Amino acid sequence: MTYLIRPMQISDIRQVMHIERRSFSMPWPSFVYVHEINHNQDAYMGVIEIVQSGESEEKRLGLSRLWTREAHSHTPLAAYGGIWMDGDEGHISTIASAPDYRGQGFGELMLIALIGRALSMQRKRIVLEVRTSNEVAQKLYFKYQFKIFNTRYEYYPDNQEDAYFMVLDGIDEAYTQMLGERIAAFRDKVEFSDSYSGFIDA
Ligand SMILES: CC(C)(COP(=O)(O)OP(=O)(O)OC[C@H]1O[C@@H](n2cnc3c(N)ncnc32)[C@H](O)[C@@H]1OP(=O)(O)O)[C@@H](O)C(=O)NCCC(=O)NCCS
User: Fold this and answer.
1) Which residue's CA lies nearest to atom 17 of ligand 1?
2) 82: Cβ below 6 Å to ligand 1?
3) Is residue 202 in a domain?
4) By alpha-carbon position, which residue is closest to atom 20 of ligand 1?
């Protein structure tokens, strides 16, 4: 199995929604993804696609041209995420890994790709909101040196849960070197290429 980190396409939305509904109590409707991909020029949506081994990029693209729209929309994904370039900062808008792929590093690889996307666009401050009960995601963000900046009370309308507003700033050479080492550690375990972040394969 190899993995391809690449920009999200409209044909991914069906699979994204499959993961989205299993990941969030307030899933984004599919039209939001259409907007983020086609209309929001500040949004950079990415996916980690699962490519069966032995399937070359050339063959895969050739096959996808032959596939029906239905079949193409089932391109399997391990994770996806998005980031808005908002002034001089990046704002992570969403991130999820497929339930069957959790605990295997794909959420982390997606986060590195999102951070890398911001860095390759000269954003050195990255922010996000996370539910105060979402300890798994918080642990991931702490691992990448995000800090809780403040609490946004009753931020989530479904259950009036608070959000932590988390910030990563002061990204320096030591931080990018740490990212490089983590990427190398992933490469020892799984084969992947990246056409999304402008950072991982740069
Ligand atoms: C949050 C999420 C993206 C993490 O992705 P994942 O693929 O499960 O996580 P990974 O295997 O990449 O693990 C990376 C880090 O996340 C944290 N983590 C992952 N699973 C964890 C668990 N069960 N308990 C505690 N921490 C956990 C750890 O810090 C881990 O690093 P470590 O292996 O060195 O301990 C994933 O759980 C998910 O999609 N959750 C639902 C959607 C969501 O909550 N998104 C965040 C919105 S703010």
Assistant:
1) 140
2) no
3) no
4) 103
